[in-house]
Structures are given as C-alpha cells and as structure tokens.
Design goal:
Elements (H helix, E strand, L loop, with lengths): L3 H14 L9 E2 L12 H8 L4 E7 L2 E6 L4 E5 L4 E7 L8 E6 L4 E7 L5 E5 L25 H10 L4 H6 L9 H10 L13 H22 L15 H5 L19 E5 L2 E5 L12
Antiparallel strand pairs: 1-6, 2-3, 3-4, 4-8, 5-7, 6-7, 9-10
The protein binds a DNA duplex through loops.
DNA sequence: CGTTCATCCTGAGAGC
DNA sequence: TGCTCTCAGGATGAAC
C-alpha cells in the first residue's frame, strides 16, 4: 500500500529513468485507469505523444511528471499501483493498464491490479508547478514548505477522531493507514482521541512521530530500487522489520508486551496497544 | 461549511 | 476440488 515513502521512491526512479525521454504512442489498456482524464483515453494519449518530461514531483501520495507542454502527467498509485520502467518487448505484466513508450528504448508502464489508482494529463492549478487536481491536497510533512504550527492549529480546530484527521489529505498529506497507526503507537495515543481535546504538545509530538516514521521508511525503501526497475508495492524492507503496531494483532507491544489489538475503523483496521494507547472515555 | 459514510476493484486466504 | 465468504483500503461525492 503505497504511502508517502513508497511514492517518493517511485518519484526518484522516474527522475532518473523517465525525465528527458520523449514519450511515444501511448496505449491505454484499461479505461478505468484514465477515468479522471475527462476528455477520454484517446485525448490522454494525444496530450502525451511527443512530449518530454522535464521534472518528477510529488505532494503526499500524488506524483507527477512536468511536461515540456506545460501540462503534467499526474499519477496516483491507489492501493496497488506501480510505475515500472521496462525494456521494450518485455512481456506485459498481468495487470498492465497503460503503456508509455520512451525514446531511449524503454517503456513506462502503469500496472495496477485493483484499479484504485489512476493517471491523467492535468493543467497547472493555483500554483504553476502543482496540477489543478492537487490543489486541495495539503503539503506533506517532508515538504520544505510545511509549517508545523499551521498543522497543529488546524488539527486542534477539528472536531473528530485523531486518526480520521491524520488520514484527511486536506489537513496533512502522505499519511495512510499504516503510518497513521505507527505514528499513533509512537505517540501512545489511541486512534479515537478527540482532536479538540488534544494539547498543542501532543499534536506537535504526533506530527514529529509521523514525520520520523515516514523518513525512516524512506531511508530503507529508498535503497531497494535499482537499475531500470522502478517499483513500489509496499514491500520495502521496512515493512518486514520496522512496524510496531500495523498488522501485528496478538503480537506483543514492543514497549510493554501487551498483545496488540485490531479494531474495526472506517471499514478497515486500526492496530494499537491496549495498554500504551488507552482509549478515551466515551464521548457524550 | 464541517463531518461521516458507502462505493469503486481484484486476488489471497480461510472455511466447508 | 471448487465454492462462498472475508479482507485489504485511498479518494470521492453524496448525505447528514
């Protein structure tokens, strides 16, 4: 499940292997993958043919190539998306959705089993270097422009549960279910804590942990791609070794030894330590 | 306006 | 063995 660190690994791969190569005749193999490109698949391909990517950028989980036309090739990997750079002629992946030939004899391939992800050609929004579709996405905590105090104030102004706020990409971007659980574990906070009742110090510490856990994942994941193969599917080494809460039901908490519990949350899961992360008293 | 929730999708794995 | 059921979850747009 690609979250910020995994998407950043892909961005670095695209900067290395796609920027500067002209795009050839694009093939859309599954219409759902371009559903957010309103004019349709043929227009999507036409916007890209002959264009040259000049930079690879990212905000949160959104990733885009700036094109020499001034437009952007915007990508969201969703749950299962991958951006691969493969040699031309290599057999298609089972879930290949879009093929973009590059002028150096390789192909950029968008592969996505569950088709929650998408690609589109977008135009600049409020800022000239950010696609219009990303305007509503908050800065992520690894962005040099991210201001911690702005986040802390916005978080405490919300009236919701803290994990809902962490997952709200218009408040802070790049955090998904895995890193939310990890940041809350490090902060000894339960996911249902009320944002309104959190102190400034608690909010600041939570932000620090979110930033740290993603930075650490990036350091591990950033070493796992090489050569032409630009890959992400949530299988960085970090997932094998570094998680303290996510997916660890019944395994001992690394801090106190109590078995980690799984609770249903927004049609998915929340993992936490029942001793270190005390649930808040029921709200009336 | 702020907040919550159903919905999209496919494959792995469990249970029978 | 093959069927059914459950689970994984990011972002959206409708509902409250």
């Amino acid at each position: 499940m690609p979250e910020l660190p995994e998407v950043e690994v892909v961005r670095r791969g695209l900067a290395e292997h796609a920027v500067g190569r002209a795009i050839g005749a694009v093939e859309v193999l599954h219409p759902r993958s371009v559903r957010r490109h309103e004019p349709g698949a043929a227009d999507f391909a036409a916007c890209l043919e002959g264009r040259v990517p000049t930079a690879a950028r990212r905000r949160g989980k959104y990733l885009w190539l700036v094109l020499d036309s001034g437009e952007m090739l915007l990508t969201h990997l969703g749950m299962s998306g991958q951006m691969l750079v493969q040699p031309t002629g290599k057999p298609d992946e089972r879930h290949l959705r879009v093929r973009l030939p590059l002028s150096d004899g390789t192909e950029l391939r968008f592969v996505d089993q569950r088709t929650f992800g998408h690609v589109m050609v977008d135009v600049p929004g409020v800022l000239v270097d950010v696609p219009s579709s990303v305007d509503h996405i908050a800065l992520d905590p690894l962005d040099p422009g991210f201001v911690p105090d702005v986040f802390v104030r916005a978080l405490r102004a919300r009236n919701t549960e803290v994990k809902r706020a962490l997952l709200d990409q218009s408040l802070i971007s790049g955090v998904g279910n895995i890193y939310a659980d990890e940041a809350l574990w490090r902060s000894s906070l339960h996911w249902a804590r009320s944002t309104r009742e959190m102190s400034g110090a608690e909010a600041t510490a939570l932000l620090g942990h979110a930033r740290d856990v993603m930075t650490e994942a990036l350091e591990v994941g950033g070493t796992t791609f090489d050569g032409l193969y630009v890959n992400v599917n949530g299988e960085s080494g970090y997932f094998e070794r570094g998680l303290n809460a996510y997916g660890r039901r019944d395994r001992p908490c690394g801090r106190c030894g109590a078995p980690i519990v799984r609770e249903a949350f927004m049609n998915r899961s929340s993992y936490s330590c029942p001793r270190c992360q005390k649930p808040p008293p029921p709200r009336s």
